[in-house]
Amino acid sequence: MASVKSWIKAARLRTLPLAMSGILMGAALSYFDGGFQAKITVLAIVTALFIQIFSNFANDYGDSQKGTDNKHRVGPKRTIQSGEISLKEMKVGMVVLIALSLSTGIWLIAEGTKGLDPTTFLLFLGFGIVALVAAYRYTGGSNPYGYAGFGDIAVFLFFGLLPVVGTYFLNIHMINPVIFLPAISIGLFSTGVLNLNNMRDIENDRNSGKKTVVVRMGSDKSRLYHTSLIILGWLSVLLFVALRFQSIYQILFLLSVPLFIRDLIKINQIHEPRQLDPFLKKLSIATLLFTLLFGIGIILAV
User: Fold this and answer.
1) Which of 105, 3, 95 is nearest to 44 (CA)?
2) Which of 27, 104, 224, 292 has the smallest set of CB atoms within 10 Å of its CB?
């Protein structure tokens, strides 16, 4: 029977800060526009964490089935690969996380769509189900999209646009087009984390038939791609501040710039893929710090 330690390992705690960033950004933006609701935000965070853990379980399960998690893999050993969790146990874990995600997700949608047309409830329920299916289909099923190079698009949507805009709407019951700018920033930074993961695993992915964006473009171009993701993410949020400027406090998030620049320089100097592994966690934490500083700046500005 799998130990608690193994389940914690399978949950991949270092990925969770990234899952919270989009929710916190959406909540901060709703506060800026006078519609923040603490209950909605807490439920959104819990649901996002459940979905992320399910995604990590499904990724562990899917890659083990495809043979991608093998002795040649550069990153941390996965729990099924190492024998810590059996396939049967992982299936049970995935079912439990689906149940938890749906429970808190339906509660979140019910609270966030009170007084609105029932169609809105069904629309958000659909978004939640699609997110769960996408989490599984990344590496699971007969034709996983992660093996065809579409993971970057999925991460951009499900870590950036959907959580930011969705949380904002559930808090304030409206959509302000300008909020798509910081949503794009979170989406691009999140895609950067996936890109680093794929840069680290390029050789094993190529040999396993996993045609990620990095495998398709090669190591050198993937560094340029990574740099572009980070720069465009910053330009997007700076444009938002320029359009919605009210107070100097709104640029508090610039305190996180040195972290992004420092790591970007180091990443472009690394030529041994396995040395990129620590930068996944660093970019996740930097993105969360950026989001928290952005939110604090908005609170102080308002």
Assistant:
1) 105
2) 224
Answer for the pair 187, 155: CB distance below 8 angstroms, yes or no: yes
Question: Residue type for 141, please?
Answer: G
Cβ neighbour number for residue 14 with a 10 Å cutoff? 15
Q: Which residue has the tokens 């874990």?
A: 93
The phi, psi pair for 141, rounded to 5°, reads 85, 180
- Residue 203, amino acid: E
**Spatial separation of the C-alpha atoms in residues 43 and 52, rounded to whole Å:** 14
Distances from the Cα of 36 to the Cα of 61, 101, 252, 253, angstroms: 37, 22, 20, 20
CA 280 centroid distance within chain: 12
pLDDT at res. 295: 97
Reduced to 3 states (helix: H, G, I; strand: E, B; else coil), residue 219 is helix
**Under-50 pLDDT residues of the chain:** none
Do the Cβ atoms of 22 and 183 come closer than 8 Å?
A: yes
Burial of 242 (0-12, 13-18, 19+ CB in 10 A): exposed
> What secondary structure does DSSP assign to 50-65, as a single string?
HHHHHHHHHHHHHHHH
Terminal-residue alpha carbon distance, the chain: 52
Planar angle of CA 47, 233, 105, nearest 5 degrees: 10
Sign of the torsion formed by the C-alpha atoms of 225, 269, 202 and 48: negative
pLDDT attached to residue 7: 92
Report CA dihedral (24, 20, 103, 142) to the nearest 10 degrees.
Answer: 130
Residue type at position 131? A
Token pair, residue 90, equals 């992982």
Residue 139 burial (C-beta neighbours within 10 Å; 0-12, 13-18, 19+) = buried
Instruction: For the full predicted model, state whether its pTM sits above 0.70.
Output: yes
Report CA 274 to chain centroid distance, whole Å. 22
Distance CA 167, CA 230 (A): 23
